[in-house]
Amino acid sequence: MAGRFPGVRAHAGGLVTAPASPPIADTTLTHFTDAALRVDPHALKAGALALRETLDEAQTLQVTSEQEKAIVGAILIDQLKTLDVMQTQRDNVTKPLYAGWQRACELFEEGLDLQKAICDALKKAIGNFELAQLQAKEQATQEARAALASGDVQAIERSLSVVNAPTQKAQGVSTGFMWKVARLVEPVPCRQCGSRRGMVPQEYWLESANEKALDELARHARCGPGDEPPIVPGVVFERAASVTGRRK
Question: What residues form DSSP beta bridges with 133?
Fold first, then answer.
């Protein structure tokens, strides 16, 4: 295998995963304690209990006169001010935490994106290989049928050796196949919506994103050896490999 990339090194017997690098961040903090947040939970619970009693009274309160309206209005203003104070106290705790969360995301973002790209590249390499193997076996199957019809024994044996070639599964890795939209045939702008629907049937091009509707159709179509793509006028489908890795 040519080339090198982070986390994998060449070995005489194949590819060996390199030792994991030491942690780059202290991940021992699994939760924020009340002390770290500088919050007194007992005071907050006691305050909530008092507020619940006040709420019970407020929900049964009825204003029956202008004088009572003025009194309740003054109480409302005081309660709104208390609400502002409580929200400020909460924000004094949550805003620094959110800023810390944002900073942590920024620090890890580049590395995470690169790591994901590495995984995607490895999946693509495996998928391309599996797709080529599938296509080779399909081609060999067709050649074996032709050789059988012509009585060419050697050609039959060659083709069957490809069809029956043993495969080795990568532990924890599985590959599936699906059809995807490759292109639309002769796209022509629609006079009504301006979309380039070509020959695609109306039930698809009426969608805001007809490719998504077509992909949904293709995803549920059988895509194993010898299976044919969905038949939709004006649409060309092609096989695609989907590779997943199962963590232990």
Answer: none
For residue range 109-144, list pLDDT tens digits in order.
999 999 999 999 999 999 998 888 888 888 888 888
The β-bridge relationship of strands 173-184 and 235-245 is antiparallel
Q: How many whole angstroms separate alpha carbon 40 and alpha carbon 48?
A: 13
Which tens digits make up the pLDDT trace of 156-206? 888 888 778 877 878 888 888 888 877 776 655 555 555 555 555 555 554
Are the C-beta atoms of residues 50 and 44 closer than 8 Å to each other?
A: no
Segments making up each domain of the chain, as ranges? 32-113, 172-245
- Convert the chain into a string of H (helix), E (strand) and C (coil): CCCCECCEEEECCEEEECCCCCCCCCCCCCCCCHHHHCCCHHHHHHHHHHHHHHHHHHHHCCCCCHHHHHHHHHHHHHHHHHHHHHHHHHHHHHHHHHHHHHHHHHHHHHHHHHHHHHHHHHHHHHHHHHHHHHHHHHHHHHHHHHHHHHCCHHHHHHHHHHHCCCCCCCCCEEEEEEEEEEEECCCCECCCCCCECCCCCHHHHCCCCHHHHHHHHHHCCCCCCCCCCCCCCCEEEEEEEEEEECCC
Q: What is the pLDDT of residues 51-63, one digit of tens each?
A: 998 899 899 999 9
Q: Which residues of 47-64 are buried (b: 16+ CB within 10 A; e: fewer)?
A: eeeeeeeeeeeeeeeeee
